[in-house]
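Q: For a teaching handout, I want to show students what a protein-ligand complex looks like in C-alpha cell form. Below are the inputs, and the small molecule is nicotinamide-adenine-dinucleotide. Please produce the holo structure.
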Amino acid sequence: MNTITVLGTGVLGSQIAFQTAFHGFEVVAYDVDQPALDRAAERFRGLAARYVADGVDGASEGAETAIGRIRLTSDLADAVAAADLVIEAVPENLELKQGIYRSMNEVATESTIFATNSSTLLPSDLAASTGRADRFLALHFANEIWSHNTAEVMGTPETDPAVYAQVVDFARRIGMVPIEIKKEKAGYLLNSLLVPFLQAGAELLVDGIADPAAIDATWRIGTGAPKGPFEIYDIVGLTTAYNISRMGGEKQQRFAEILKKQYIDEGKLGVATGEGFYTYPRES
Ligand code: NAD
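A: Here is the structure, written as C-alpha cells, with nicotinamide-adenine-dinucleotide included.
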C-alpha cells in the first residue's frame, strides 16, 4: 500500500490523514467543498503543532513535512483514482455512507480496498453498497490517534482474509496497535468494555450509593487504573454522555436528567469547558 485516501476531514478523518502522512504515506484527503477543505488545512496545522506539543517521536522534524504529503480535493473521482486503500470517515449516517460507497465504487479501480471508521454501524450494514464486499472492512480509530493508538480491524464474513491481513499490516505501519476482531460486534472491543463500565458508575450515583469522587477513587486505588468512570465522562464530554444516557433504561434516563440539570444547563460540559464532575486543571 502506497497511496491512501481519506474521505471526510472532520475530527477523525483529519487525524487519520495526518497520522498516515506523518508515517511517510502519500495521502489524498477528500471533503465536500472548498470551505470544508480550508477547515481541513487548518486542522492539519493544528495537528502538527499538537504532535510537537505532545512530544510525539519525530514530530519536531516530521510534523510540518507531513502536511506536504497530504493533497486536498473535493473531486471524488480524482480522490480515489490512485488509491490502494480508502478510509471513510464521513458523518455517522447510514444512507449518507451507503451513497458515498456507491458513488465511489463507480470511480475507484477494482483492486482498491475500502475501510470504514464508523463507530456504531457494522461493516455488514455497508458491505453491499461498496460493490466489493471481499475488499471491505472496518478500520476503527480512537480520538487523538497519535496517543490512543488502537486500530480495531473488523471484517464481515465476506471480507477476504488476505485483505484483512493487508489492513492489519497497514495499521501497524502508521504507528497503530492493530486490534484483530474475529467476528462483527457492535461497539468493537473498546466500547463493549467501556459503555457497561460507565453505566455501572452512573447507576451507583443515581441510586445514591456513593458520590463520583468515591466511585472514581475506589476504581483507581482498587485496580490501579488511571481514571474512574466520572473522570472518563468528563473527557468524553457530558453532552455526548447525555445523548447516549437519555436513550437508555430508567436509571440511565435519571442519570441523563442529572447531567442536564446539574451540569449541561450550567455550561459544565467536562474537560472541554474546564468543569464537569471535576474542575480543570485538576488540583492534585
Ligand atoms: P465530523 O462531523 O467531525 O467530520 C465529518 C466530515 O465529513 C466533515 O469534514 C464533513 O464536511 C465531511 N462530510 C460530510 N458529508 C460528506 C460527504 N458526503 N462526503 C465526504 N465527506 C463528507 O465527524 P467525525 O467525528 O470525524 O466522525 C466521522 C466518522 O468517524 C464517523 O463514522 C464516526 O462514527 C467515526 N468516529 C468518530 C470518533 C470521534 O471521536 N469523533 C471516533 C471514532 C470513530
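A: Two things your students might notice: The radius of gyration is 20 Å. The longest strand covers residues 136-141.
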